[in-house]
């Protein structure tokens, strides 16, 4: 009798499991044209710049589809490495992959622009209530270690009505490979020949001065905890942590407040077909000069490492949603929605993604 009861329970569990699996397949099959079992987890890693936006996007996408996205905010460099090692479905980076990274990947990696945002210069001066202004020369010389006090004449000259303290400047910068660093050092290399020759641009550089923090979170924490601190972080981190940030003089000579509007102005440019373009030191009169695109990275050919067609379809569908419906979540978090030109480039790149040589999107 006991054996019959156990067998009946086991059969019931099997039927329930099969019914759940078929229901999941039918719900997803209407949109992905795949007969495979629905994948319920998509894994990604990379940009901490994107993390506030991704957290909102992925929660909304789960509500719509019940697809779980597990994203690790580990920095753009680590995201690229994990994608290269094929331990995640997608990476995220605020800098396009370079030639060395392309070679290491061993196959074509698509760069899908998903948002644009501002890298701000935040500081910790409790006695200063006014918003500070910085010129390109002041920024370069602070991060070169040539300006070491907050009441330096160069800072005072552009902030004549501000009583600046004699506090020592403590620079905070990234310790990990970072797309935020790539944006910031790209800007510095464009506005300072000395920076270009001594330090250069990239996701990781040999800094002249500063304390290292991991991720935007780490740099924000260092600045917030250090009197006299200054560092570069994504705009959302500064706002969420109630940290002051400077207005920056752009190429047109205007002091620009970082915002989704001023980033949109900077991003109003022609987008190349591969999606790779830098926005720093914009010519736009109302554009914020330390702006950048961020990209989701995926292999063009998705049929690798025993990946299923269902995995490929669900990943591409997620990214397609991110560049369309997902854009509505950016402005409230101080990211600039993609331009129509950037969306078109993203659409074309996603249409080029294949599974065993056949287009993923039908």
Question: How would you briefly describe this protein structure?
Answer:
With 362 residues, this protein is an alpha/beta fold.
The main β sheet shows up as: 8 strands, mixed
What quaternary form is this? Answer: single chain
Characterize the overall form. Answer: elongated
What is the average per-residue confidence, as pLDDT, rounded to a whole number? Answer: 89
Q: Note the run of SSEs as H and E.
A: HEHEHEHEEHHEHHEHEHEEHEHHEE
* Structural class computed from helices and strand pairing: alpha/beta
Residue ranges: pLDDT <50 for 5 or more in a row? 1-37
Alpha carbon gap, first and last residue: 53 Å
Give me the CATH architecture of the largest domain, please.
3-Layer(aba) Sandwich
Task: Examine the coordinates and then state which fold CATH places here, giving the name of the CATH topology of the largest domain.
Answer: D-Maltodextrin-Binding Protein, domain 2
Structural write-up:
The protein has 362 residues and is an alpha/beta fold. 40% of the residues lie in helices and 18% in strands. The protein is elongated. It starts with a helix and ends with a strand. 48% of the residues are buried. Mean pLDDT is 89; it is low at 1-37.
Note the main attributes of this structure.
362 residues, alpha/beta, D-Maltodextrin-Binding Protein, domain 2, 2 domains, 3-stranded mixed β-sheet, 13 helices, elongated
Task: Outline the fold blueprint.
Blueprint: H1 2-32, E1 41-46, H2 51-65, E2 68-73, H3 76-84, E3 90-93, H4 99-105, E4 109-123, E5 133-134, H5 136-143, H6 153-158, E6 170-174, H7 179-191, H8 193-198, E7 211-213, H9 215-225, E8 229-234, H10 235-240, E9 247-249, E10 255-256, H11 260-266, E11 291-299, H12 309-323, H13 340-351, E12 354-355, E13 358-359
Parallel strand pairs: 1-2, 1-3, 5-9, 6-7, 6-8
Antiparallel strand pairs: 3-11, 4-8, 4-11, 9-10, 12-13
Helix pairs in contact: 12-13
């Amino acid at each position: 009798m006991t054996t019959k009861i156990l067998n009946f329970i086991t059969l019931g569990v099997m039927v329930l499991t099969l019914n759940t699996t078929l229901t999941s397949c039918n719900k997803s099959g209407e949109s992905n044209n795949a007969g495979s079992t629905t994948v319920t987890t998509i894994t990604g890693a990379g940009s901490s710049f994107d993390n506030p936006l991704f957290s909102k996007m992925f929660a909304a996408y789960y509500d719509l589809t019940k697809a779980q996205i597990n994203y690790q905010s580990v920095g753009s460099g680590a995201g690229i490495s994990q994608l290269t090692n094929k331990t995640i479905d997608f990476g995220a980076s605020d800098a396009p992959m370079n030639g060395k990274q392309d070679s290491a990947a061993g196959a074509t990696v698509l760069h899908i622009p998903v948002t644009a945002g501002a890298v701000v210069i935040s500081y910790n001066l409790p006695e200063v209530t006014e918003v500070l202004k910085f010129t390109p020369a002041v920024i370069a010389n602070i991060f070169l270690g040539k300006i070491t006090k907050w009441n330096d004449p160069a800072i005072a000259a552009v902030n004549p009505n501000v009583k600046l303290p004699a506090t020592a400047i403590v620079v905070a910068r990234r310790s990990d490979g970072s797309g935020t660093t790539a944006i910031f050092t790209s800007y510095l290399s464009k506005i300072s020949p000395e920076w270009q020759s001594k330090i250069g641009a990239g996701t990781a550089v040999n800094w002249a001065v500063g304390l290292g923090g991991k991720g935007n979170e780490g740099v924000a924490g260092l600045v917030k905890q250090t009197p006299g601190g200054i560092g570069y972080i994504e705009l959302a981190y500064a706002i969420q942590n109630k940290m002051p940030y400077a207005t920056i003089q752009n190429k047109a000579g205007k002091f620009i407040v970082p915002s989704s509007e001023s980033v949109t102005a900077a991003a109003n440019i022609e987008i190349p077909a591969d999606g790779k373009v830098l926005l720093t030191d914009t010519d736009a009169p109302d554009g914020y000069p330390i702006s950048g695109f961020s990209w989701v990275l995926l292999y063009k050919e998705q049929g690798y490492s025993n990946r299923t067609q269902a995995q490929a379809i669900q990943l591409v569908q997620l990214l397609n949603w991110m560049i369309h419906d997902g854009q509505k979540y950016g402005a409230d978090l101080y990211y600039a929605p993609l331009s129509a030109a950037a969306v078109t480039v993203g659409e074309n790149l996603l249409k080029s993604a294949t599974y065993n040589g056949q287009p993923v999107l039908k």
